[in-house]
Amino acid sequence: MPPRGRVWSWTIQRFRPKTPPYIGPEAFEPFAIGYVELPGAVIVETRIVGVDFASIRIGMEMETVIIPFATDASGRTVVTYAFAPVQDEVQHG
Is the pTM of this model over 0.85? Predict the structure, then answer.
């Protein structure tokens, strides 16, 4: 799948999801979640990171990043994918 796409829609998750299935940190902080359209492929649901909530815009160019998500029972870091604004988009948006 393409590593870049554009924000199709988004919102802010302001409350901690129920456990299970949520396995994220106990100290919950709101996060952006949205749909990113990957050209010629699919629209994926994803976390949006690396940008102030007020700066997110429909059509904003995003790229895939890997972020830490949780720590498993063995103390290992569990990672997940997310999308962050393409750096040029943040500077010139």
Answer: no
